[in-house]
Protein backbone atom coordinates (compact mmCIF):
# COMPACT_ATOMS: atom_id res chain seq x y z
CA UNK A 1 0.00 0.00 0.00
CA UNK A 2 1.40 3.36 -1.02
CA UNK A 3 0.83 6.42 1.13
CA UNK A 4 0.17 9.65 -0.72
CA UNK A 5 0.14 13.12 0.71
CA UNK A 6 -1.71 16.21 -0.50
CA UNK A 7 0.40 18.83 -2.29
CA UNK A 8 2.42 21.16 -0.06
CA UNK A 9 0.77 24.51 0.54
CA UNK A 10 2.97 27.41 1.55
CA UNK A 11 6.55 27.04 2.72
CA UNK A 12 7.99 23.65 3.59
CA UNK A 13 9.25 22.91 7.10
CA UNK A 14 12.83 23.31 5.91
CA UNK A 15 12.05 26.65 4.24
CA UNK A 16 10.30 27.85 7.41
CA UNK A 17 13.29 26.92 9.58
CA UNK A 18 15.78 28.56 7.22
CA UNK A 19 13.68 31.72 6.94
CA UNK A 20 13.28 31.95 10.74
CA UNK A 21 17.01 31.58 11.30
CA UNK A 22 17.77 34.23 8.68
CA UNK A 23 15.16 36.64 10.08
CA UNK A 24 16.27 36.05 13.70
CA UNK A 25 19.88 36.90 12.77
CA UNK A 26 18.82 40.05 10.89
CA UNK A 27 16.51 41.17 13.71
CA UNK A 28 19.13 40.48 16.37
CA UNK A 29 21.67 42.61 14.52
CA UNK A 30 19.14 45.43 14.31
CA UNK A 31 18.57 45.11 18.09
CA UNK A 32 22.27 45.33 18.96
CA UNK A 33 22.95 41.56 18.83
CA UNK A 34 20.26 40.81 21.40
CA UNK A 35 17.40 38.40 20.82
CA UNK A 36 14.67 40.66 22.20
CA UNK A 37 10.97 39.88 22.20
CA UNK A 38 10.62 42.56 19.51
CA UNK A 39 13.19 40.80 17.32
CA UNK A 40 11.44 37.45 17.81
CA UNK A 41 7.99 38.89 17.02
CA UNK A 42 9.32 40.73 13.96
CA UNK A 43 11.01 37.59 12.65
CA UNK A 44 7.94 35.40 13.07
CA UNK A 45 5.68 38.00 11.43
CA UNK A 46 8.03 38.25 8.42
CA UNK A 47 8.13 34.47 7.96
CA UNK A 48 4.33 34.24 8.19
CA UNK A 49 4.15 36.94 5.52
CA UNK A 50 6.53 34.92 3.29
CA UNK A 51 4.34 31.85 3.83
CA UNK A 52 1.17 33.74 2.87
CA UNK A 53 2.83 35.14 -0.25
CA UNK A 54 3.88 31.62 -1.27
CA UNK A 55 0.32 30.35 -0.77
CA UNK A 56 -1.12 33.21 -2.83
CA UNK A 57 1.31 32.37 -5.67
CA UNK A 58 0.35 28.70 -5.47
CA UNK A 59 -3.36 29.51 -5.59
CA UNK A 60 -2.87 31.79 -8.60
CA UNK A 61 -0.92 29.08 -10.46
CA UNK A 62 -3.79 26.69 -9.71
CA UNK A 63 -6.26 29.15 -11.24
CA UNK A 64 -7.74 30.35 -7.95
CA UNK A 65 -8.17 34.10 -7.91
CA UNK A 66 -8.10 35.68 -4.47
CA UNK A 67 -9.88 38.94 -3.81
CA UNK A 68 -8.76 41.65 -1.44
CA UNK A 69 -11.04 41.87 1.64
Structure description:
This protein has 69 residues and is mostly helical. It has one domain. It contains two helices and no strands. The longest helix is centred in the C-terminal third of the chain and has 25 residues.
Q: Topology, please?
A:
Blueprint: H1 13-30, H2 37-61
Oligomeric form of this entry? single chain
Give me the secondary-structure category: mainly alpha
- Spans of at least 5 consecutive residues with low confidence: none
What about the largest sheet?
A: none
How many domains in all?
A: 1
Helical run tally: 2
* Portion in beta strands: under 5%
* Average predicted local confidence, pLDDT: 89
Q: Tell me the total number of β-strands.
A: 0
User: Which percent bin holds the helix content?
Assistant: 55-70%
End-to-end gap: 43 Å
Global morphology: flat
Radius of gyration: 16 Å
Strand and helix order: HH
Task: Offer a concise description of the structure.
By secondary structure, the protein is an all-alpha fold.
Descriptive terms for the model:
69 residues; 2 helices; mainly alpha
Amino acid sequence: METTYPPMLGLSEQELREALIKEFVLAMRAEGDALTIHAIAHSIARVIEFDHLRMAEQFERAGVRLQEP
